[in-house]
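Because showing beats explaining, we think one record worth quoting, sequence and backbone structure tokens together, and here it is:
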Amino acid sequence: MNKRHIEKLKDILSEWNPLGEQANQISDLDNYEIEATDILFHINKKSSVEQISKMISTVLEQAFRIDVEIKKSLEIANKIYLMLNKK
């Protein structure tokens, strides 16, 4: 995990915005920085897309008490997987 990966994942999560309108009600959201850091802390280059997807769901569901759509989680996990394995 490095600063560049955290920034990229923050961008990915912010673009997705899993909280939707609720994001406006959270004053310290900071473009999902804590969640991006938590997700990256628990995965690595060897993690599969499915493992990354599960970590996304776990982190977001625990942080915000929301249900994460599996299809969208897999889509985001694939982006993260590609980011981590980019040469």
The helical segments are 3-16, 33-41, 49-64, 70-84. The chain has a mean pLDDT of 94. DSSP finds four helices and no strands in the chain.
